[in-house]
Amino acid sequence: MSNRKAYVKTVLQKLVxxxxxxxxxxxxxxxYLADVTSxxxxxxxxxxxxxxxxxxxxxxxxxxxxxxxSKREYSLQIQNVDITDDGQYTCSVQTQHNPRTVQIYLTVxxxxxxxxxxxxxxxxxxxxxxxxCQAKGKxxxxxxxxxxxxxxxxxxxxxxxxxxxxxxxxxxEYECNAENEVSFRDIKKVKxxxxxxxxxxxxxLTGMGLGRPGLIRCETAAVPSPxxxxxxxxxKLFNGRQGITIxxxxxxxxxxxxxxxxxHYGNYTCVAINKLGAANASVPLICKSTLxxxxxxxxxxxxxxxxxxKLMITHHKTSNTYH
Length: 323
Hints:
Elements: E1 12-18, E2 27-29, E3 39-44, E4 47-51, E5 54-55, E6 62-65, E7 75-78, E8 87-94, E9 100-117, E10 121-124, E11 129-138, E12 142-147, E13 154-157, E14 160-163, E15 172-179, E16 186-207, E17 214-223, E18 227-232, E19 235-237, E20 244-248, E21 252-257, E22 266-274, E23 277-285, E24 315-316, E25 321-322
Parallel strand pairs: 1-9, 10-16
Antiparallel strand pairs: 2-7, 3-4, 3-8, 4-5, 6-7, 8-9, 9-11, 11-14, 12-13, 12-15, 15-16, 16-17, 17-21, 18-19, 18-22, 20-21, 22-23, 24-25
């Protein structure tokens, strides 16, 4: 006994549902009996869901529905469709002659969702770093990484991002992007902090005339932020003593002299220290008046530069001239 086409015109149907955790869709698979004496059954793959009006499935979300006034409709309805409902459904209609079937394939698409990502990372410069990002979705999402910099280019594709011998320039936020064809991409970030020892970037003097206020600024680069110490020669300086104020910030320290005197002349050293090392730089503060008759307010602190000038005199006997 050969099979014939189903009562409905479409033998094979395809339904696509986009699953969203905030919106649980309702799906209805249409099927019609040949007449009131026909018997129907619904199967999911090889499992029987309904046989006639008898429910075999224990899933409370599935039910048989029919149109008002229609005794021939034998449709299957699934509430709160999720990804586990994906697959083939078959409506089998038993008539007096031959069984007829309708096959419906339900595709449940799921937007990308990052389900696991590395925590924020703190490492020392030169270390190897591995970041991990895992996402779910259907179709399976593609994952790519991006270092949040002005250029903001993709850096790597895949769940793992491996950085060997990391440098301070590679610190910052790394963005994991998960995307598929269903919906907008999902994005999460990991912050990578790279520790490195201090470096003195600049020592700068401002003012420093006798009788005037002046300051020395010490600029550094370091992670974590350094502690600062100041020395005049071999003597450690302290805030609030000898007319000196020391103010330190995350990467900068400023030494201020409220009223410059000759006692403040000398070699000043800024020392920056963190757990990875230390750095220091010195600047000489040498004051000299080239015009003694001027008031102290006309004195200035300068870097002394000695210029040598040699005068050569040649006597030409023939012309009795000097050059």
